[in-house]
Structure prediction request, 374 residues.
Amino acid sequence: MKKCFWIGAILRVLLPNSTAIMKKLVLLLLTLSLHSLNAQVYDTLVWADEFNGTGGVDTSKWWHQTILPNAGQSWWNGEIQHYTDRDTNSYQKNGSLYLTALKESYTDQNVTKEYTSARLNSKFAFTYGRVEVRAQLPTGVGTWPAIWTLGQNIYEVGAYWDVQGYATTGWPACGEIDIMEHWGYNQDYVSSAMHTPSSFGNTTNKGTQYVNGVSTGFHIYALEWSADKMVFSVDSVVHYTYEPSTQTASTWPFDAPQYLLLNIAIQGSIDSSFTASPMIVDYVRVYQSSSIGVEESPIQSAKFYPNPAQGTARIHHNLSEASLSVFSSTGLKVMEVKNYPSGSEIDLNNLSAGVYSYILKSSAYQSQATFIKL
Prediction:
């Protein structure tokens, strides 16, 4: 009913006085709003690493997974590297994590390999939320960087949560979410995928997009994980949504905690001229929701006007010491005002046209609603 009210009200206000171009824009926004008005808002940062230290990684947040799982001889998928816990393969510098693959002869666990890299497990597991990783990817045929998750309950020798005693099931029953994979033989094509008992390995549940310059600049790789679906994007451009029509243990083992992994694997097809290349990570952030969605709050303590808005807007409210947060339709926070006085002007000029939600919050109350930026 609230959706119908919104659409009817906006049509009554806008369409009689709109140009043909404006009408098309409004109709487009209204179509988008059918989805965005129920979008989850991930407004609370619950875990992050900004990599502002120096030297080795923060071991209170990350675990080096180094034990060879395949009969003590190798990693899976034909990978030919050793993962190490040395600072040469993973270190912090200038506000970033450098996770570096190297060509070098290295012996560990009585096995010698000609390449080394790092594989990090987060000491944080979560259910639902938004993951953002801003990163620059390595280059070279045969490199295989990944940003991904595994179920906290996986049996995997040497994995952090297995060592902590959480393991109860194997792969793929634990579920795997590949937020970003990039193969050096297919430069600038980024893939996201789901691995479940219903489809795994060469899974049918995947999506890809071309992103220019993934190895020469930073991009934001994101996952939004709700109780219904997974949405994958790069720089806010969505390339894959996983939303099974029927959720079972076979299609959706994702109502339980997952943990993050960062790694660069080396494939047997590695270019003979390869010597070294890093995945440089600016930050890893996990957000979760402090509310259930972006429907209007029953607390009628705030009024946003004009709505729809163009350059500026104001909110009248009766909350004391209120903070204002504005979110895009994907749940990304795009504006924050720590202390927003009632009726103060809000500059919207930096926002693209679309449907947004806002949360006005004080110590005792919270008002939440949506608006349209033209």
User: Anything to note?
Assistant: The radius of gyration is 23 Å.
